[in-house]
Amino acid sequence: MKDLVSIITPCYNSAEFIEETIQSVLNQTYDNWEWLITDDLSKDNTVEILRRYNDPRIKLLVLEKNGGAGNARNKSLERAQGRYIAFLDSDDYWYPEYIETMTDYMQEHNAELVYCNYSRCDEHLKPILKDFMADTVVTFSNLLKTCRLAPVSTMYDTKRVGKFLFPVKSKREDHVMWLNLLKVIPEGMPINKTMAKYRMRENSVSRKKKDIIKDQYLVYKDFMGFSTVKSLYYTVNWAVNGFLKYSKIFN
């Protein structure tokens, strides 16, 4: 029997895009999954849309207080029962073979963490940059300088290491969680195949690189416990790599 995959999704005011995301999960060729969606007190009709889907694998939790994406992901992770943990934000999209390809690779290669290529798209899912390529084995060391792992394109195996929660006091919670994970998983393996679409919305925090230098510095200073000099060194590396990654969309 196929191992259960737990899909972790935070959502907030996602009504405009959530149905495309839902359909991408329902279209998966791998069917043994549970989808743990935590709504962070949306003000639009996101919850109403989600409740239209009568699939027992979709498990919705509506929070009574807005706590941010990291907190919402943690609420889903706390309920997750699957061996494999996958992440899908409420405005992103998976190709039908995503789960099957990722889990097959992990089983065949005894890998504990894998990531794949993904398309970088506008709000209409039209590519606006070249696909981000999974062409490097990821380690704790090289992840310090640039974050190659995106929730939409990364999956890990909990069998040995368990589940990893997100820090709720960081605006760079993804990067902190990946770094913590790669302290115990030696390497993340690349799958050089595009199987996901990342929607780069106009108000996306990840597009405002100049505004989050301080938050990135705190990743190293507060969460990794590095010295000031070492934290500045890695922040500069991250900023340069981030600019190269998204240079065509900076004003």
Automatic annotation (TrEMBL):
Q: What InterPro entries does the entry give?
A: Glyco_trans_2-like, Nucleotide-diphossugar_trans
Q: Which Pfam families does this UniProt record tie to the protein?
A: Glycos_transf_2
**SUPFAM superfamilies under this entry?**
Nucleotide-diphospho-sugar transferases
UniProt domain Glycosyltransferase 2-like: residue ranges: 6-126
Name the chain's protein: Glycosyltransferase family 2 protein
Source organism per entry reads Chryseobacterium rhizosphaerae
